[in-house]
């Protein structure tokens, strides 16, 4: 059965610099490190709007996949206010993509360099790897991320990922305008 997929980043999407600064002012610093305390309830509620409206499942594209299992991340999302959260996987970790040469254009300098094993691949490549491996289960997909590193080995695939990116800002996180954009993108079928 095909389902809509949301590729989910956490930092800069479900939390923001503004939220974390205001939270630090209100609570003890030692509590901020816990995952439950790092998520903005308003942003999680907005994620819930996307999931409940679209019926989408989640694929974790965040670096949180290095710290927490799928089950733990789903539990965090549910307990923080997204009862529709169903985590069905995560994008490959960079070490799982060893031996792959990837030309990458730096956003800072605009120059191309080679990323190879042992170095983090652009998020777009990790997403593309997951999409290509699971194309038979994807009805549509949207990417929620505060970074635009959606480059892949295939220019057409890079454009596809960019067209499905809902880019948040790390200062503000997931806002209503992003919810509306994501729902619109998830209504657009994915044609492999």
Main β-sheet description: 5 strands, parallel
Give the total of domains.
Answer: 1
Unreliable runs: 99-119
Question: What is the overall number of helices?
Answer: 7
- Kindly state the number of beta strands: 7
CATH architecture descriptor name:
3-Layer(aba) Sandwich
Mean pLDDT: 82
Instruction: Assign the CATH class.
Output: Alpha Beta
Distance between the termini: 15 Å
Structural class of the helix and strand makeup? Answer: alpha/beta
Spell out the helices and strands N to C.
Answer: EHHHEHEEEHEHEH
Strand content: 15-25%
User: Oligomeric form of this entry?
Assistant: single chain
Across the major sheet, the strand order is 3-2-1-6-7
What overall form do the CA principal axes indicate?
globular
CATH fold description: Rossmann fold
Radius of gyration of CA atoms, rounded to a whole number: 16 Å
Helix content: 25-40%
């Amino acid at each position: 059965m095909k389902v809509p997929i949301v590729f989910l980043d956490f930092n800069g999407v479900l939390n923001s610099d503004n939220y974390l600064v205001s939270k630090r002012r209100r609570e003890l610093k030692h509590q901020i490190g816990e995952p439950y305390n790092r998520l903005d309830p308003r942003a999680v509620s907005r994620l819930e709007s996307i999931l409940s409206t679209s019926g989408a499942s989640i694929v974790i594209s965040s670096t949180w996949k290095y710290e927490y299992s799928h089950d733990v991340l789903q539990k965090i999302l549910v307990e923080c206010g997204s009862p529709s959260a169903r985590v069905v996987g995560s994008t490959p970790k960079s070490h799982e993509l060893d031996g792959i040469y990837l030309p990458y254009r730096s956003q800072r300098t605009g120059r191309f360099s080679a990323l190879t094993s042992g170095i983090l691949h652009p998020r777009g490549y990790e997403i593309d790897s997951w999409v290509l491996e699971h194309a038979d289960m994807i009805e549509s997909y949207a990417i929620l991320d505060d970074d635009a590193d959606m480059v892949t080995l295939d220019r057409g695939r890079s454009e596809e990922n960019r067209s499905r990116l809902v880019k948040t800002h790390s200062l503000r996180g997931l806002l209503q305008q992003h919810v509306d954009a994501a729902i619109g993108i998830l209504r657009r079928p994915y044609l492999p």
